[in-house]
Automatic annotation (TrEMBL):
It is found in: Cytoplasm, Nucleoid. HAMAP family: DNA_YbaB_EbfC. Homodimer. The lineage of its organism: Bacteria, Pseudomonadati, Bacteroidota, Cytophagia, Cytophagales. Transmembrane segments: none annotated. It comes from Arcticibacterium luteifluviistationis. InterPro entries: YbaB-like_sf, YbaB/EbfC. This is Nucleoid-associated protein DJ013_00020. Binds to DNA and alters its conformation. May be involved in regulation of gene expression, nucleoid organization and DNA protection. GO terms for molecular function: DNA binding. It comes from the Bacteria.
Amino acid sequence: MFDMAGMMGKVKELQSKMEEAQGKLGDITAEGESGAGMVKVTVNGKKELQSVVIEPELINKDEIEILQDLIVAAANKALQNVEVKSKAELQNATSGMMPNIPGMDLGSMFNK
């Protein structure tokens, strides 16, 4: 027989664990770099830019477009890296709570 009360309890527990995991996303950081490490960007799990480090020899007003491109590339790499870490954190927080349904991505469902 289907236990609706038990199911609702599991859903509330899952929601609580997801909220807790989302609270921890600000503590997760990832770095991306470009230009052989001459531009480094750090982001957190909430996809907020935390820092940009640029090697001084890249600062040349005649090549500003190159520097801008390197910053964008490094930021995109950092965002990709933190996405992997964030998904792992959310999956860890909800492991054993829900069945593994192919195509169902809980991280995207609850990620704000």
